[in-house]
Amino acid sequence: MATKVGKTGLGAGEINTPIRQGLEFLCQTFGYEMDAWERAAYERTLKDISADILAEAAQMLVDEAAAGRKFYPLPKAPDWKAAAAKVLNNRRKAAQLEQLKNCQHLTGHWREVIVNGVTRMARCECWEAGKAAADRIGAPLELPAVASDEPWGQA
Q: Is 120:113 a contact under the CB 8 Å cutoff?
């Protein structure tokens, strides 16, 4: 039987601080007590995500619940990771768009270059700068494939 300490059942030093803070926030918001097995699942799933991304993702989940999305009894680790992926992707897009806002190459951000007398297409400098800015934010999170009951080609 799991020993519970507080709403999340967290003992000192059992779990990394950003995940602990996020779990405490979610458990308090959703009125849920968590056991050690559940905490371990969150830790394994979220351990490589930065604190600011986790905090923003937790707030996103609470906002979604307020808008009517159902979580029972609270968002699970994959829900939180998917929200973190959205936050990270939004930050990456914003960083890239900042670099592209004054770009003159509006048709796909391509430019002509001549290589050994042959005209080729290459990405413009603004696009390269935007990609570098997005990469500085962080790599996109890998999410597991979503299972579907429908065979391919049928909806």
A: yes
